[in-house]
Amino acid sequence: MLPSDRSGAGVLAFVLSRAPKETPGGVRIHVLGSQSAVERFGLLDLKPTRHGLEIRVTDAALHGAVIIDGRTVLTRHISEHTSHAALVRAPAVVQAFNALFADAWKRSVPLPLDRIRHEFPQEILICLREGYIDEVAARELSMSVRTYRRHVAEIMRILGANSRFQAGVFAAEAGLLRTTERGQEKQAG
What we know:
The chain is an alpha+beta fold. The chain has helices at residues 9-18, 35-40, 43-46, 91-107, 111-119, 122-130, 134-140, 145-159, 164-173, and strands at 29-33, 53-57, 65-68, 72-78, 83-88, 109-110.
């Protein structure tokens, strides 16, 4: 987990950059961080070159940690005047870190899906989920039908969807539609 602040994310990114391109024996490396941390430390460049590396993006505040085989945690604590690292093997503490990571991982977005969140207007995803035909959606969004279709084709490719409606449903299930306090998607204003 890359910490939300700058404290240890650089060290974790450095270690990842030095990891072998081929992970032995099916070893998997899961990285969870904010979009800014992933971009700041060049992890976008690592993804295509590393087998077994999966990067997910979250908006949640994270405490930096490395979890090894689900049995050992390397973490660090930074206060105003000191900084301490800890290697933890206590089963209850490791279990708590594993649970926190699993929950944050489940609520995060795979890196390719995060492109949808940042590169495409939310209104396109809402139109897809609602099943609007291209002409109506393009008119509602004040864009040409050709531009709308180009955006939709890229979204469908990234999501692995077979239809526009399926792309909208996948986007909603992946948490790509921002919500308001009432749980309703934000509409264009």
